[in-house]
Amino acid sequence: MDYEARISKVEAQLEMQQKDIDRLYQAIDELRKLMLDRFDRTDRSIAELRKYIDLKISELRTYTDLNLGELRTHTDLSLSELRAHTERGLSELRAHTDRSIGELRAHTDHRFNQMQNQIDELRKEVGVNLRWMIGMWLTTMGMIAGIGGRVFGMY
User: Fold this and answer.
1) How far is 64 from 60, CA to CA, in rounded Å?
2) Which of 16, 63, 70, 123 lies most in the core, judged by the most C-beta atoms within 10 Å?
3) How far apart are CA 109 and CA 134, in angstroms?
4) Residue 71 pLDDT > 70, yes or no?
């Protein structure tokens, strides 16, 4: 009875761990979807920034025709500021995305390590229980053989 309870407990733990693994895979898939969505939004944002830059460049070309010398310096300044702003925004976005991915990987690695440790402990416990079962079986068989020998007068 005690072994059946232990076996059912181990089976329940295995089922819970399998459910945890399934939930973790679902969470990873959702996170991948969110990351792909974020990348799509980033691409759209970059496209909008490019359109905005192209629009600004075309506006600046129009003004350059009117006052070439003054507007050239103004255009160069505006473009460099816009590029610096765009690069800052992109680098901040990349840094944030890299941090998020790093945190996700760290969390996932930690969770997998925990699960591996639990599986290792479970294997050890199963091994001990198996040795006990074999020992009990051998002892029982020895006792039955002894009783049989005694009953049938073999010794």
Assistant:
1) 6
2) 63
3) 37
4) no
Distance CA 153, CA 96 (A): 84
Q: How confident is the model at residue 5 (pLDDT cuts 50, 70, 90)?
A: confident
Given a cut of 60, is residue 56 above it in pLDDT?
yes
State the chain's mean pLDDT as an integer: 88
CA–CA separation, 83 vs 89, rounded Å? 10
Exposed/middle/buried for residue 4 (C-beta within 10 Å: 0-12, 13-18, 19+): exposed
What Cα–Cα distance (Å) separates residue 112 from each residue in 106, 148, 153? 10, 53, 60
Return the pLDDT at 1.
57
Q: Is the dihedral of CA 8, 13, 17, 20 positive or negative?
A: positive
The phi, psi pair for 3, rounded to 5°, reads: -70, -35
Q: Where are the beta strands (DSSP E) in 2-153?
A: none
**Res 131 pLDDT > 90:** yes
Whose tokens are 């506006």? That residue is 59
Both structure tokens of 79: 């473009």
